[in-house]
Amino acid sequence: MNINLLTDEVLYVLIGIVGVLVISTVITKIMKRKNNSSGLKEVEMRIRSWWVMFIIFTFALLIHSTISLIFMALLCFLALKEYFSLIPFNRAHRLVLFWAYLTIPIQFLLIYLGWYGMFIVFIPVYMFLLIPIQAIIVGETKNFLRSIATVQWGVMLMVFGLSHLAFLLVLPGRENSFAGAGLVLFLVVLTQANDVAQFLWGKMLGRKKIIPKVSPNKTWAGFIGGVLTTTALAVVLAPLITPFSFFTSIIAGLYIGLTGFIGDVNISALKRDLNIKDTSAIIPGHGGILDRVDSLTYTAPLFFHFTRYFYF
After folding, report:
1. What are phi and psi of 292, to 5 degrees?
2. Rounded distance, CA 115 to CA 113, Å?
């Protein structure tokens, strides 16, 4: 898979993102000089982290398609590792984790080969049925259901869900992988923009809570404002880097906005159950890997099948 994924359209979008980051950095610096509050320090730290994440993502996406797949496999590994570090687990069942991690290289090999039929059933069929066997061999039945369900759900989200982001690169076929890079960029930009927009609209206009028992900071204003902002951005970006029509770009924006919200609150429910604020502190100002890919665990597989059904 020796393909250069850079096109003029993708380059224009990346330049636009750089522009947004530069403007955000300058505005934050100016505001910090006038009022050096702790809130602005956190915003500045978040923007610095966005710069780092943008550079890493751009390098992985544009240098070589195989590098892109390796980067996304590493992302799945880090997300799964962070997930397992949070979950209470019966030590007798820890060998089951080996099978969970083994799904990553196999799943990405299937992506590299473009073997969609096996890619789509390997984890939800074969691994879901095989993972409990290791625990059965050990013979420890205490917390058996909790341990197996924990592993299966983690693999489903962090490997199966996120790996759909990688399959977008080969979805159009090797002869047309430029479209795949555009789709990946479209999905990632809209998913992250949806998170930011929901946060900003919630801060500005948020009053009525949407699911206070799961995520007290989520409001109806934030949710609706985020979805509409994401949809507007989809309409702007779609003609540049996707094959979508105007109508389909609206549907895609609404779809990503809604499913991104669901993915976000799904991980929020997990953190509330574990009584933690962030999944780790690996990304300054943002928390952990799961705090950044939570929305993608839902938007990646659902957007993938939306795109495949209508266009490929």
Report:
1. -100, -25
2. 5
Show Cβ contacts of residue 101 under 8 Å, excluding neighbours closer than 6 positions. 77, 80
Nearest to 197 by CA among 165, 226, 238: 226
| C-alpha to C-alpha distance for 222 and 88, rounded to whole angstroms | 33
125-144 tens-digit pLDDT: 999 999 888 888 877 788 88
Tokens of 37: 């509050």
**Amino acid identity, residue 165?**
L
pLDDT tier at 178 (50, 70, 90 boundaries)?
very low
Return the ∠ at Cα 110 (arms to 109 and 114), rounded to 5°: 115
CB 226 within 8 A of CB 262: no
228 Cβ partners below 8 Å, 6+ apart? 257
Tokens 């950044």, residue located: 292
Report the amino acid identity of residue 288.
G
Euclidean distance between CA atoms 269 and 211, whole angstroms: 10
Average pLDDT, integer, range 263-279:
86
Retrieve residue 30's tokens: 């100016």
Alpha carbon separation from 190 to 140, 151, 227, 238, 259 (Å, rounded): 45, 29, 10, 11, 11
Four-point Cα dihedral 250, 255, 256, 260, nearest 10: 150
* Beta carbons of 231 and 257 less than 8 angstroms apart: yes
Cα distance between residue 170 and residue 52, in whole Å: 26
Confidence (pTM): 0.89
Predicted pLDDT at 309: 82
271 membership: H or E segment, kind and range: helix 246-274
Q: Which residue's entry shows tokens 């939570």?
A: 294
C-alpha 184/C-alpha 62 separation (Å) is: 11
